[in-house]
From TrEMBL, chain A:
It comes from Hominisplanchenecus faecis. It comes from the Bacteria. The keyword Metal-binding applies. SUPFAM superfamilies: Aspartate carbamoyltransferase, Regulatory-chain, C-terminal domain, Aspartate carbamoyltransferase, Regulatory-chain, N-terminal domain. This is Aspartate carbamoyltransferase regulatory subunit. Pfam families: PyrI, PyrI_C. Residues 96-140 form the Aspartate carbamoyltransferase regulatory subunit C-terminal domain. InterPro entries: Asp_carbamoyltransf_reg_N (IPR020545), Asp_carbamoylTrfase_reg (IPR002801), Asp_carbamoyltrfase_reg_C (IPR020542), Asp_carbatrfase_reg_C_sf (IPR036792), Asp_carbatrfase_reg_N_sf (IPR036793). Residues 2-92 form the Aspartate carbamoyltransferase regulatory subunit N-terminal domain. The keyword Zinc applies. Keywords: Metal-binding, Pyrimidine biosynthesis, Zinc.
From TrEMBL, chain B:
This is Aspartate carbamoyltransferase. Heterododecamer (2C3:3R2) of six catalytic PyrB chains organized as two trimers (C3), and six regulatory PyrI chains organized as three dimers (R2). Residues 149-299 form the Aspartate/ornithine carbamoyltransferase Asp/Orn-binding domain. NCBIfam families: asp_carb_tr (TIGR00670), PRK00856.1 (NF002032). Keywords: Pyrimidine biosynthesis, Transferase. Residues 2-141 form the Aspartate/ornithine carbamoyltransferase carbamoyl-P binding domain. Pathway: Pyrimidine metabolism; UMP biosynthesis via de novo pathway; (S)-dihydroorotate from bicarbonate: step 2/3. It catalyses: carbamoyl phosphate + L-aspartate = N-carbamoyl-L-aspartate + phosphate + H(+). Catalyzes the condensation of carbamoyl phosphate and aspartate to form carbamoyl aspartate and inorganic phosphate, the committed step in the de novo pyrimidine nucleotide biosynthesis pathway. Belongs to the aspartate/ornithine carbamoyltransferase superfamily. ATCase family. Carbamoyl phosphate binds at residues 51-52, 101, 129, 132, 264-265.
Length: 147, 306
């Protein structure tokens, strides 16, 4: 297996669906972080067959885990300190997401009002349904995963 | 301070209090004639409306208050590019309460997030119209004496009619409610109401196409207009617009204590000959709209009348 240098301190995002690592890279705005990022695509996985992995050398609080939970709450978040896994964070669907997805309803006020945040609120956790805070337009969280 | 964006913003208990207040206003209008003296209602109507705007203005005037505002976006600063957030902050300097109608869904909510005065959603696109629902509930409760154990027929455009969607969402909170949904195939109730509201709350309902089949079992018949602006082509509209016409002959099939409601304006869906039938309640409904809005203004301004 390909060996990418071990992290001393940082975060390893494991069990990312194969091929989705770049969209997560963008959602997490990793391009804007001034730290070392490694992306591993199509790594072998007993559980998933193939998976992607992202290693980020930065404190965990610099990453927006809410967004990660929204994209795919099955991703494993390993917190690394002194080269060891010290914690595994469980992801949940966030209650609210701000400026992650845009409302597609052309009749929504977000389509014309300047400076208005795009806010979606979790309305059905079981069915993973979010609704636009302003117009109630429905959005399935599973769509984000498959984007 | 609170705002009203959706008919579900009030609990069933709060709604009861509000409807009781509306009935007291109806019975004792003089008692409330000066309740809002010195207060101003701003009516911010970014799109044309006759009934809603006039009934808000009549409501505030009946309470002894004053009214200011605009009745189309053309006569507001929106044409200059002003945001809703800025408009409401400016209006709050001039008025004590505001009613906003806007073609964009969620605009009144944006206003409420920046407003130091209560904001009433007076209709936002095809989304919510809570004061119409309050009016409908007040009409049903006043004329039928209850909001539970009723069979309610909703007829016409059930697909695009926000009035119908809001009324269903409000009525499912009462026990023993049963719906008969009467529409052509093309204008049936959307799945988010059928699944997320009716089935989710285990509400008994049936969907039928013929009005005649439904009429004998109804306590309330709620007629709606097929709205031309909802159709992409004229041909579909022409085919649908006269699908249902309630006339004297059909009324013979209805129970003697059924009431006929309509949010107005009507086009052809209720024949003029039905207006004289004692069961025709749509003009009374327009009167109840004023009482409902008076009660809402008093409640949001926290004005107590002894």
């Amino acid at each position: 297996m390909l060996n990418v240098g071990q992290l001393n301190e940082g975060v390893v995002l494991d069990h990312i669906e194969a091929g989705k690592s770049m969209s997560i890279y963008h959602y997490l705005k990793l391009d804007q972080l001034d730290c070392c990022v490694a992306i591993i695509k199509n790594a072998r996985s007993n559980k998933m067959g193939k998976k992607d992995i992202i290693k980020v050398e930065c404190p965990v609080d610099m990453l927006d885990l809410d967004i990660l939970g929204f994209i795919d709450h099955n991703i494993t978040v390993n917190i690394i300190k002194n080269g060891e896994i010290v914690d595994k964070k469980k992801l949940h669907l966030p209650k609210q997401i701000v400026n992650v997805i845009k409302c597609k309803n052309p009749r929504c006020i977000t389509s014309i009002e300047h400076g208005l945040d795009q806010v979606f609120v979790l309305s059905n956790e079981e069915k993973e349904i979010y609704r636009c805070r302003y117009c109630d337009e429905k959005y399935h969280a599973s769509k984000a995963k498959h984007k | 301070m609170r705002h009203i964006m959706s008919p579900l913003d009030f609990s069933v208990e709060e709604l009861d209090q509000l409807l009781n207040l509306a009935n007291d206003i109806e019975a004792n209008p003089k008692k409330y004639a000066h309740a809002c003296e010195g207060k101003k209602l701003a009516t911010l109507f970014y799109e044309p409306s006759t009934r809603t705007r006039l009934s808000f203005e009549a409501a505030m005037m009946n309470l002894g208050g004053n009214v200011l505002g605009f009745s189309s976006a053309d006569s507001s600063s929106a044409t200059k590019g002003e945001t809703v957030a800025d408009t409401i902050r400016m209006v709050a300097c001039y008025a004590d309460i505001c009613a906003m109608r806007h073609p964009k869904e969620g605009a009144p909510l944006v206003a409420s997030l920046h407003s130091p005065i209560p904001v009433i959603n007076a209709g936002d696109g095809g989304h919510q119209h809570p004061t119409q629902t309050l009016t409908d509930l007040l009409t049903i409760r006043s004329l039928k004496g209850r909001l539970d154990n009723l069979t309610i027929g909703l007829c016409g455009d059930l697909k695009f009619g926000r009035t119908v969607h809001s009324l269903i969402s409000a009525l499912v909170r009462y026990t023993g409610i049963r719906f008969v949904l009467i529409s052509p195939e093309e204008l049936r109730i959307p799945s988010y109401i059928r699944d997320d509201v009716l089935r989710e709350n285990n509400i008994e309902f049936e969907e039928v196409e013929r009005l005649e089949d439904a009429l004998p079992k109804l306590d309330v018949l709620y007629m709606t207009r097929v709205q031309k602006e909802r159709f992409f082509n004229e041909e579909d509209y022409v085919r649908m617009k006269d699908f249902y016409i309630l006339d004297k002959k059909k009324m013979e099939l209805a129970p003697q204590d059924m009431i006929v409601m309509h949010p107005l304006p009507r086009v052809n869906e209720i024949a003029v000959e039905v207006d004289d039938d004692p069961r025709a309640a749509y003009f009374k409904q327009a009167q109840y709209a004023v009482y409902a809005r008076m009660a809402l203004i008093l409640t949001l301004l926290e004005v107590k009348v002894c």
